[in-house]
Amino acid sequence: MNDPSAPPTSGDTSFSQGILLLTIIPTTASATVGGLRFATRAWITKNLGWDDYTMMFAVFGTLIGMALDFVEVHYGYGRHKYYLTPHQLQEFLKYTWGEWIQTFATLINGSFARYKLPCTGACCIVRTVLNGGAIPEDDVSYGGLTNWIWRAFEVNLGIIAASIPALRPGYKWLLERLSSSRKASSVHLPLADRTTAVPPRAYTTKESALGLSDSDILKTTTLDVEAGYFR
After folding, report:
1. Mean pLDDT in the chain?
2. What is the DSSP-derived secondary structure letter of residue 211?
3. Which of 40, 44, 78, 186 has its C-alpha lying 20 to 30 A from 129's C-alpha?
4. Lowest mean pLDDT among 117-126, 135-144, 213-222
5. 225 or 126, which is more confident
6. Per-residue pLDDT for 226 more than 60?
7. Confidence class for position 222, pLDDT limits 50, 70, 90
8. Could you report the per-residue pLDDT of 79-125, keeping only the tens digit for each?
9. What whole-number distance in Å separates Cα of residue 61 and Cα of residue 50?
10. Among 81, 87, 94, which residue's Cα sits nearest to residue 13?
11. How far apart are alpha carbons 130 and 112 in whole angstroms?
12. Whole-angstrom Cα distance, residue 188 to residue 153?
């Protein structure tokens, strides 16, 4: 364990932007897929079940977790504990406990959904192997980043994996709507308005398409020149 009274060798580095990026992208993806699942079951297949409601509660839980991550970053998450004021550290720890409670509530709430447990279990195994789920007490605002990253993926990938199979009816419905829209936009003219294609006439070498012979064309050109049209 490092001496908490000594400054970190890496200085006052911050991973706050990385934390925000890693919480916005997965949470937005899981909320989108989860919302599409609920919409598909509610308005297309019309067979909402209890698992759909629990999945929506899980989505709301991830959105709450994202909001807590923003607050934690505001109070120093991603920076070394050494550089935080006592007030920042106190507020950070308070919201961190709230995020832990939210994470486990979200996992339990959506753990009954099909296809979710294998995905969340894989992320949980990776997280445990990497750091044993432990967060160093001497640098809690910085040393627990690896644990947090895999915990975030554990929740969001679980929601996505449990929601994708339910999107198939919505995908088929969208393809049918696009196909019918293309057919409706096609212009079908009445038979009487359609232009009948006339094959081109084969002209001889002595006449043109205007019915003029080569000698007539030569006379016309000569008259035009004499009249001054080609000045």
Report:
1. 76
2. S
3. 78
4. 213-222
5. 126
6. no
7. very low
8. 999 999 999 999 999 998 888 888 777 766 655 555 555 656 566 66
9. 17
10. 81
11. 27
12. 52
**φ and ψ of 14, to 5 deg:** -140, 135
User: How far is it, in rounded angstroms, from Cα 42 to Cα 65?
Assistant: 26
How many Å apart are CA 25 and CA 31, to the nearest integer? 10
Cα distance from N-terminal residue to C-terminal residue, the chain? 100
The model's pTM: 0.68
To the nearest 10 degrees (0 to 180), the angle between helices 86-110 and 145-163 is: 30
Residue 138: closest CA among 80, 185, 97: 80
Question: Which residues pair with residue 92 across a beta bridge?
Answer: none
**Three-state SS string across 16-84, please?**
HHHHHHHHHHHHHHHHHHHHHHHHHHHHHCCCCCHHHHHHHHHHHHHHHHHHHHHHHHHCCCCECHHHC
C-alpha dihedral over 45, 49, 55, 56, to 10 degrees? 70
- Is residue 105 within 8 Å of residue 144, measured between CB atoms? no
DSSP 188: -
- pLDDT at residue number 35: 94
Round to whole Å and give the CA distance between 210 and 58: 79
Q: Identify residue 152 by its one-letter amino acid code.
A: A
